[in-house]
Design brief:
Radius of gyration: 15 Å
CATH class: Alpha Beta
Strand order of the largest sheet: 3-2-1-4-5
Helix content: 40-55%
CATH architecture: 2-Layer Sandwich
Shape: globular
Order of helices and strands: EEEHEHHEH
CATH topology: Nucleotidyltransferase, domain 5
Strand content: 25-35%
Number of domains: 1
Structural class: alpha/beta
Largest sheet: 5 strands, mixed
Distance between the termini: 39 Å
Number of strands: 5
């Protein structure tokens, strides 16, 4: 299996509002970026979409070290999703899980890979995190 480093980020203007996502991939010294946007969304949806689209871009099963500045995504996939599934997509308080469609898509994409999830501080000077943030914001600019 190939080893991939992936950074993802989502952004939103006027949450909810126009949003964008960005991805940086690196494998065997080759780099690739992806970005996209939606007219009416939330920051959390864009964070999830970035991870989904990054994983979907991989053509075969890979070992992926995925870096996100979203604790919502990182904790959601590593800690919360098992309980949500066990409770038929309900939170511990009995409410419907927000963004269930994207969580289910993310689970489908992770099934093809060995994903190691890492949280990085946003706007903390990490070059790749800053890059994906700028890609997400650029996607919003291109949309508007």
């Amino acid at each position: 299996m190939k080893n991939v480093i992936m950074y993802t980020d989502g952004a939103c203007r006027h949450n909810p509002g126009p949003g964008g996502w960005g991805v940086w991939l690196s494998c065997n010294g080759e780099e690739r970026t992806l970005h996209g946007a939606e007219k009416d969304t939330t920051n959390n949806r864009m964070e999830l979409t970035a991870a989904i689209m990054g994983l979907r871009a991989l053509k075969q099963g890979c070992i992926v070290n995925l870096y996100t500045d979203s604790q919502y995504v990182q904790k959601g996939i590593k800690e919360w999703v098992i309980g949500w599934q066990r409770r038929q997509w309900r939170t511990a308080a009995g409410q419907a899980v927000k963004n269930q469609d994207l969580w289910q898509s993310l689970l489908e994409e992770t099934a093809h890979h060995q994903v190691h999830w890492h949280w990085v501080r946003g706007h903390g000077g990490n070059v790749h995190n800053e890059l994906v943030d700028s890609l997400a914001r650029r996607a919003i600019d291109e949309l508007l």
